[in-house]
Design a protein that fits this description.
By secondary structure, the chain is mostly helical. Helix content is 70%, strand content 1%. It contains nine helices and two strands, in the order ααααααββααα. The chain has a two-stranded parallel ribbon with strand order 1-2. Helix 5 (88-140) packs across helix 7 (202-226), helix 5 runs antiparallel to helix 9 and helix 6 (150-178) crosses helix 9 (249-268).
């Protein structure tokens, strides 16, 4: 069975980043454009591309690792290894080793998927909180800022600034982690940047961000124009019409909700 780890000259315990680095290093070295179209290097380049296609995908890598482990175990059972003893204890030991390594593969795949899901949540959760907060603010039309004392205004402005910085950081990190720019699809393999293996285009994410913001704002205005219960019940805190200060509240809402969510995740972990 072909050993893709040997082809990429890396360890079976290598991290995803180490596998990507190994692939880029070999790809730059063996690319046909740098070797005058040599047939030998072309075959080697095709081999490392095939190896990275499998090992670069956590799920495909887990499947491959299981096949590789099974092949080694069957080889050992047939006496084609240094552990050639047919003693029942030796066979049992080999079985335990096989099961232990198999469990390591599964645990690694689960951990990789969990990290991926958590990173995606770090992008999705603030966006959902942003859309919900815009919707609620345009319905309720709060006027807390104008009715607050100086210290209250300072607190609101401080929270607003912190919320904007927090929201910008979350969106920026998510975009860098999960999106590619269309121009990156044509980048040369000789560039130091990683291959474009990200699932979404930046244009798509920006479109979702703009559509969600506009939809939440318009929807809130339409509903708020027909439902005015809040301003009637608490006229000192909520206005009949949308005030300019409404821009303060969505970032503050996102900041508070996201901090609560992050705390809850840490407690569960």
């Amino acid at each position: 069975m072909t050993n893709y780890y040997d082809i990429l000259k890396t360890s079976q315990k290598a991290t995803n980043s180490e596998i990507k680095s190994a692939y880029r290093r070999l790809a730059r070295k063996l690319h046909p454009d740098k070797n005058n179209g040599s047939e030998e290097t072309a075959r080697a380049f095709a081999a490392i591309a095939e190896a990275y296609e499998v090992l670069g995908n956590p799920r495909e890598r887990a499947r491959y690792d299981k096949k590789l482990l099974r092949a080694r175990f069957e080889s050992a059972q047939n006496g084609d290894s240094v552990f050639t003893s047919s003693n029942s204890h030796a066979r049992r030991w080999r079985q335990l080793v096989y099961e232990h390594r198999y469990n390591e593969i599964i645990d690694r795949m689960i951990a990789a998927e969990r990290r991926e899901a958590m990173e995606l949540q770090r992008l999705i959760f603030p966006l959902v909180a942003l859309f919900v907060s815009i919707f609620l603010v345009t319905i309720s039309k709060p006027q807390v800022f104008v009715n607050s004392a100086v210290i209250g205004k300072i607190v609101l402005v401080s929270l607003f600034v912190a919320g904007v910085i927090h929201l910008y950081g979350r969106i920026r990190d998510g975009i860098e982690r999960f999106t590619y720019h269309e121009d990156e699809l044509h980048d040369s393999i000789f560039e130091e940047s990683e291959p474009a293996t990200k699932p979404y285009s930046r244009l798509t994410v920006f479109g979702i961000l703009l559509a969600g913001t506009a939809g939440s704002f318009i929807g809130g205005l339409l509903i708020g124009s027909h439902v005015n219960v809040v301003s009637v019940l608490v006229p000192t805190m909520f206005a009949n019409t949308l005030q300019p200060e409404f821009i303060f509240y969505p970032p503050i809402f996102v900041l508070i909700v996201d901090l609560i969510y992050s705390f809850a995740v840490r407690v569960e972990a």
